[in-house]
Amino acid sequence: MRSTAPFLVLLLLISTALADGPADNVADQVRPVPPLGIELSQADRNELEGGLAQLNKKIEQLRKSKNTKLQSLIPDVEIFSRAIRDAISHRELFHKNDITKAREVLAEGHARADALNEGNAPWTTQTGLVVRGFRSRIDDTVQPYGVVVPESYDFSGASEYRTDIWLHGRGERSTESLFIHERMNRVGKISPANTLIVHPYGRYSNAFKFAGEIDVFEALDHAKSQYRVDENRISIRGFSMGGAGCWQFAVHYPSRFFAATPGAGFSETPEFLKSFQGETLSPTWYEEKLWQLYDCTGYANNLFNLPTIAYSGELDIQKQAADIMEQAMGDQGLKLTHLIGPQTKHAIHPDSLETIESKLANLADRGRDRVPTTIDFTTYTLRYNRSFWLTVDELAEHWKRATVNATLSGSENTIRVTVDGVRGIQLDLAAGDAPFHPRQPVQIEIIEFGSNHDSESATTRQILVGPRPESDRSWHCQIHRDGDQWKIGSRPATSGIAKRHGVQGPIDDAFMDRFIIVAPTSKGFHPETDAWAKSELDHLVHEWRRQFRGDAIVKKDTEISDDDIATSHLIVFGDPASNVLLKSIHSELPIRWNEEGSRVTTGENHKSLDAANHAPVMIYPNPKNPDRYVVINSGFTYREYAYLNNARQVPKLPDWAIIDIRTPADSLWPGKVVDAGFFDEAWKMK
């Protein structure tokens, strides 16, 4: 029987999503995203600003408390203050009723501050709709998320709860104040029984990529600290832009969830933009390679290990996302479960939702397969390098397809590993998970295909004798390729720096963890490049708030501490004359200015260009701390044109580039890119 629950009826009211139109394909006429809101009347401004000032005083009083538990809950209050601050400062209230919503958001902030100043936090034991906040590691800003706590939740019990992460659709007006108000008042599109629902903000409208991707995990981690989440019953779900996010989480993190249910959205960049946006694409060679960071079709093989239920409306243009994934999975011998809502445009048909919920409930009963016997894994970058008990440590070459198939055989005390394009892996089985005989060493059979092999040979086969399992039935082993042979153990540290997980580029990768912008304090080699660097620094600060909803941390080059170097990626602007930090590491970088600052040179046998008109941008392991990046003269590399369609929000520049600043920066580029490329696996110029 068809469900008639009110939230299902709402699904039919979702407006049809159409292409953004040809006007959004004109790069020199980019409309603002988010749009500029209404001008507040003086009375409304005075009311909101007065209420905000009072709330901030209450928050300051809370910060003086020595109660650590109280201190940990301040982000649950501060999210309301920051939301109203930005709504006023940046004109992000778009209709008169948004002002009413802002009043309600502000009132809730006051209620929480008053309660917390009295030592109470009633929202922490509240069922139903709850808005929570956490302080992000990336830039220290408080970020909101919503949670739906089932009425059955027992705050004094021990039972762990199934948890569904729901990724929201695109909303150019979904700024913090309006997101918080919605999460205070609407259950959302899903509401399975006895299930916690986590609604990440995702840092606005970026399809849960880059900082939006990290926001999802930070929200989940915070929810785990507040509620009893069953680690083996976490699903990833979403529709429209949230469906796109769901696809990328599913293929990049197949071992984190018990199931994925992507609906509509997009799953790759080029074909979607052609079909949905009607855009004519003419990418550079490095842009095409960089599509592989988020294009899910190349990672379709990873769904071998993750139950996936896709949904599309029969008449929805965004059905293309599941269709192209179905084809990509078919190429890997996998058949996609693809539910189609009959005669439905951009909405979830209630019958289809009922089927999805039934299938998902069955999968939740079984839970995540913690220790699959066989793992199939594909990647193009060490940013995404793990699936269950397999971790890829080294690639033959980034942005080329790399695959691993690994199978446990307890009866034979063997792991069979088939690799292509991989030079190092870890195999980790936790306590109780190793199926091997405890008195016998584990044999590792390695079969390597030749498509990414250093030599001319095709397939090679090798047997290694690994360690015995430990007495707690755990087992750990690293292997790496040395020349034409695989060896037990990790690569010797004497090999020098190498691309590895979290330090592998490209430039945009630096903005997925804590970063500090390092501003120059002196005059540079040339006034033209000084002005350009300052403009790009200001652009990053402005667009970080607008696009990723954060307040970037900016320090002068003379203020950078040892702790900053130890904990943060450093985004350095200027040249060795204007920036003392850059001067201190300049000789150890692969792209250099000469002593007179007259030439910029990209290593031996590469271009040497006049420094008055050219500026380098790049990412590189910080010579002062190779566990963190230094980025020179660049923010995140997609610009305002990409804001118009989430599928465009992909890296535009690789590991390094040289910019001719005589061409003004625009909505696509920081200037004219005259040369660009990737560093090799040892961070050397190719």
From TrEMBL:
Key words, A-Z: Coiled coil, Signal
Protein's UniProt keywords contain Ribonucleoprotein: no
Peptidase S9 prolyl oligopeptidase catalytic domain: residues covered: 215-349
Recorded GO MF terms: serine-type peptidase activity
Signal sequence extent: 1-19
KW ATP-binding (keyword) present: no
SUPFAM superfamilies registered for this protein in UniProt: alpha/beta-Hydrolases
Entries under InterPro entries matching the protein: AB_hydrolase_fold, Peptidase_S9_cat, Plant_Biomass_Hydrol_Est
Gene3D superfamilies linked: alpha/beta hydrolase (3.40.50.1820)
Gene Ontology terms describing biological process: proteolysis
Coiled-coil parts of chain: 38-72
Name by which UniProt lists this protein: Putative secreted protein
